[in-house]
Amino acid sequence: MLKTETFTLNMGPQHPSTHGVLQVVLELDGETVVQAIPHMGYLHRGIEKLAESRTYAQFIPYTDRLDYVSSMGNNLGYCQTVEKMVGIKVPERAEYLRIIMTELNRIASHLIFMGSLAIDLGASTGMMFGFRSRERILDLFDMACGARQTYTYIRFGGVSADIPSEFIPALQRFLTDFPAMLDEYHRLLTGNEILYHRLKNTGVISGQRALEIGLTGPALRASGVDYDIRKVEPYGIYDRFDFSVPLGQVGDCWDRYIVRMEEMKQSASIVTQALEQMPEGTVMATVPKVLKPPAGEVYHSIENPRGELGYYIVSDGGVNPYRLHVRRPSFINLQVLNEACQGLLIGDVVAVLATLDSLMGEVDC
Amino acid sequence: MVGKGLLEGMRVTLKAFFNKKETLQYPEIKLTMPDRFRGGELKLDNEKCIACGLCARACPNHVIELTTGTDEQKKRHLKSYVYHSGLCLYCNYCIEACPTNAICWDKNYENSRYFKDELDVDCLAISKQKSATVDVAPADKSNAEQEDTLKRREKDE
Amino acid sequence: MQEITGLFKIAEILRGILGHFLPDPQLVDICMSLINIGAIFTIISLTAVVLVYTERKVSAFMQRRSGPNRVGPGGTLQSVADMIKLMAKEDIMPAGADKWMWILAPILLFIPAAAVFVVFPFDNKAIFADLNIGIFYFIAMSSQSVLPFLMAGWASNNKYSLVGGMRTVAQMLSYEVPMVLSILGIVMLAGSMRMSTIVAAQQHTWFIVLQPIAFVVYVITATAEINRAPFDLVEGESEIVAGPFTEYTGMRWALFFLAEYANLLAVSVIATTLFLGGWNGPWLPGWVWFFLKVGGMIFLFMWFRWTFPRLRIDQLMSFGWKVLLPLALLNIIVTGIGMYIYEFFS
Ligand code: SF4
Ligand code: SF4
């Protein structure tokens, strides 16, 4: 008797396209995916536990290491949470600097998304191009805080230092060049029929299902759900800017791609507006050296490039957090992988994984 | 028309083919790091240090290990100061905490090592040695090396 | 063989020298065959070395990098260094591999890639063997490469390899058909399958002018035949690591690599011969024209690779059967009708 059976393929943890050390256990029927179960934990460093033995301020550098391609957002989320707990007022100029930095970081992060999507689909030139533009942003960060990836720039009560004088001209140069760069990517990738057919109608997640599972960020908005914390619950000074939230329709890989490409444009416009409105002044409020938040708990979330990044802190009134939990969007978004991949082909798993844009540093906190 | 996007993409890559290259040839050309660059190893100025230990206290990862002692005039001074660069998060907290600006980054980003124990830097010894001998700035040294390699390459060609 | 070419003369002289030392003419023949094989192997290795270097430079330039530039002047010796490195590498055989199949696969892949070299018309009268079924021979030889891929995939005892092997069969078989059909139009026009006759028929007009559709179909199918992006599913790095080659190391892997670049050269040469007029061209000597055109074709294939994303396996199949095949058939019909009309009027 002839019979067929499925076989198991371990994709990762050492695999060219699992973005860090993710293992996806694929159950395959020929090339068709029956199940795709992500196994994580290869990058677990126990950051949440580490927080309990660090002072509040000392934990900021560790947030850099969560989602290491958008560290500014991580810094911001954490600092705002603690500020909410203690009740610190942040100076105007610092607020604007925070916006500029996080939005630039969003662009940088989406550029990585674009590049890694391109190389996962076999177009390595797209990746090189994406990384080239990102380099311009990293240069700006380097100028402002001396680091290219682990910034620790945003601190309680402001930012660590005012921007140097050469920063603004360089930023303006970047903002003028950016539309041309974006146009180049659109011509190289977005217009490409092969890319379109690879992404269109693969890995569809309906809006309803996305909400049920708790997807956030571009992955949720691609499914047509209009939820952006910057609009819904404006933190910092986001209510002062005029920007739109790009939405997708069907929630396939293509929508997730387009939503992110559009978001870059919006972020650039926010940076431009912030640059125009930014007042002079100090960038740091007076904050006690050793912070002792009152006993209690607080949750605060911001819109990171990958979704809702939330910090939940329990304080017992001491110098260290009693418990700290991070709601990591990458981790929660990754849940949908199995559902989105069922019935697709091996090549599509890569595309779904790339468009969900989960970052292993954040998945294994 | 089908295929227009493909041709457009080919135009982009062809243009890139003839454009200026973006990369730098690393060992010959080195980027100058911005003023605020955090990286390399900690450089201690023994004369400025008052052995207060604030840097070690501020450090989130216990990177700095120092012991102090008092001399005849009851003045505190450092007995040892070890910086474990393998553990460092490069967060700048130690430098910000120092009341006398006794530490700073040496800005030499070429700090890969063959052995793990070479990552532990005895800053005090380096600082003492430096004040004893004539100051050779690390930047000059790397410049000299740079010229050397350039010369060698010229000879090769 | 009536063609007396430079290479042929060298062979004659060698044969003469050997005849002095070896008593038996049969021994001389054997020696000559060995020398021929050695020569072809050298040529292919050299081609691979040059092509790898070119590929790395082209890819670098398209990505705004400078590419290899350390070993030798302008990095030209980089691929030589890589070759030496590959030869020095440890030869690892996976546990549970099907030993003989595993060992044979790279060799069997390499033989057809080398064998097609004999029908390349480098210049007027410079052709190793001007078979009267030259094109047929090329097609027959190049389709041999399906089996070794499957062998390698099966024998490696690795799932990625197996998936890659299965993909190869699907892809190569379905792209062979439109490729043959696209070539058929040329054969109809030239009225011969002999390489030299086909080139001679293009003295005035290149066949690319008369057969533009066939050219497009040929280029697409050829890209698929040699497993290059956007049809590099067989070794799709981000999906199945390296497909059938996943478990190979050192020299065995290098054989795959050599065969790949030999095939790249082969399809470019055939494209030049069939569509771009072979050695025909004004002013310059024939072989210069030939190599210029081949270089152009190779650049085109590299350009594709460094621009396009990869197709998916089902899209690849439906594109082959539903678009390329009808297109190629249509081309044949149009060519036939056109030829009939042309004959009717003249
Ligand atoms: S940079 Fe940060 S981690 Fe490194 S020694 Fe200073 S305080 Fe410690
Ligand atoms: S904080 Fe400055 S002065 Fe105090 S021990 Fe450290 S280096 Fe010395």
From TrEMBL, chain A:
InterPro entries: NADH_Q_OxRdtase_suD, NADH_UbQ_OxRdtase_49kDa_CS, NDH1_su_D/H, NiFe-Hase_large. Its EC number is 7.1.1.-. It is found in: Cell membrane. NDH-1 is composed of 14 different subunits. Subunits NuoB, C, D, E, F, and G constitute the peripheral sector of the complex. Belongs to the complex I 49 kDa subunit family. This is NADH-quinone oxidoreductase subunit D. It comes from the Bacteria. NDH-1 shuttles electrons from NADH, via FMN and iron-sulfur (Fe-S) centers, to quinones in the respiratory chain. The immediate electron acceptor for the enzyme in this species is believed to be a menaquinone. Couples the redox reaction to proton translocation (for every two electrons transferred, four hydrogen ions are translocated across the cytoplasmic membrane), and thus conserves the redox energy in a proton gradient. Keywords: Cell membrane, Membrane, NAD, Oxidoreductase, Quinone, Translocase, Transport. HAMAP family: NDH1_NuoD (MF_01358). It comes from Pelosinus fermentans JBW45. It catalyses: a quinone + NADH + 5 H(+)(in) = a quinol + NAD(+) + 4 H(+)(out). Residues 120-364 form the NADH-quinone oxidoreductase subunit D domain. PROSITE patterns: COMPLEX1_49K. The gene is nuoD. It is a peripheral membrane protein. GO terms for molecular function: NAD binding; NADH dehydrogenase (quinone) (non-electrogenic) activity; quinone binding. Its main location: membrane. GO terms for cellular component: plasma membrane.
From TrEMBL, chain B:
GO terms for cellular component: membrane. The keyword Iron applies. Pfam families: Fer4_7. Residues 40-69, 79-108 form the 4Fe-4S ferredoxin-type domain. Keywords: 4Fe-4S, Iron, Iron-sulfur, Metal-binding. PROSITE patterns: 4FE4S_FER_1 (PS00198), 4FE4S_FER_2 (PS51379). Gene3D superfamilies: 3.30.70.3270. SUPFAM superfamilies: alpha-helical ferredoxin. One of its GO terms (molecular function) is metal ion binding. Residues 136-157 are annotated as: Disordered. Residues 142-157 have a biased composition (Basic and acidic residues). This is 4Fe-4S ferredoxin iron-sulfur binding domain-containing protein.
UniProtKB/TrEMBL annotation, chain C:
GO terms for biological process: aerobic respiration. It is found in: Cell membrane; Membrane. It is a multi-pass membrane protein. One of its GO terms (molecular function) is NADH dehydrogenase activity. It is an enzyme of class 7 (translocase). Its EC number is 7.1.1.-. The chain crosses the membrane at residues 34-54, 100-122, 134-154, 175-193, 205-224, 253-275, 287-307, 319-342. It catalyses: a quinone + NADH + 5 H(+)(in) = a quinol + NAD(+) + 4 H(+)(out). One of its GO terms (cellular component) is plasma membrane. NDH-1 is composed of 14 different subunits. Subunits NuoA, H, J, K, L, M, N constitute the membrane sector of the complex. NDH-1 shuttles electrons from NADH, via FMN and iron-sulfur (Fe-S) centers, to quinones in the respiratory chain. The immediate electron acceptor for the enzyme in this species is believed to be ubiquinone. Couples the redox reaction to proton translocation (for every two electrons transferred, four hydrogen ions are translocated across the cytoplasmic membrane), and thus conserves the redox energy in a proton gradient. This subunit may bind ubiquinone. Belongs to the complex I subunit 1 family. This is NADH-quinone oxidoreductase subunit H. It comes from Pelosinus fermentans JBW45. The gene is nuoH.
